[in-house]
């Protein structure tokens, strides 16, 4: 991890709220995604015993080509389903550094996750769960998705990663190039 990013993690306050540890780890994954040239979003799953089950980060450009399903939550749930098929999903909490988008919101419901806590709000891109078709609305009644109760430092760091550290216009250009079938340079 580069020095600037490491310093941002190290400057964080000592954990005083139960989820601070998870918030820090989400931010660490987000910064690692950024260093891979991907969107600065990290996610993890924590079990009932408050143990880390698995973690993941955005990988949309990590494989040398654009992967539209490479969002952190999608990567995380792929890992859960492949590696922990016997795990009771209702016992898990999914932490993510950014409010889930429409795609990930749907995937979270389909994967049977019932607790989601995010750090930064995503006003332009976060999905609020309003106006769902009936079957999805019924699924959504099982799931609680809200901002995590963590030290404000981690929420601000998650925001900073997306809004300042990441080159948003540059990322958008890369996505549009991929849509056109042009090489990623
Ligand atoms: Zn997403």
UniProtKB/TrEMBL annotation:
Keyword vocabulary terms for this entry: Metal-binding, Zinc
Domain CMP/dCMP-type deaminase intervals: 17-139
InterPro entries attached to this UniProt entry: APOBEC/CMP_deaminase_Zn-bd, CMP_dCMP_dom, Cytidine_deaminase-like
CDD domains assigned to the protein according to its UniProt record, in alphabetical order: nucleoside_deaminase
A GO MF term: zinc ion binding
Pfam family membership, one: dCMP_cyt_deam_1
UniProt keyword annotation of Oxidoreductase present: no
GO biological process: tRNA wobble adenosine to inosine editing
Protein name: Nucleoside deaminase
Organism: Pseudomonas xionganensis
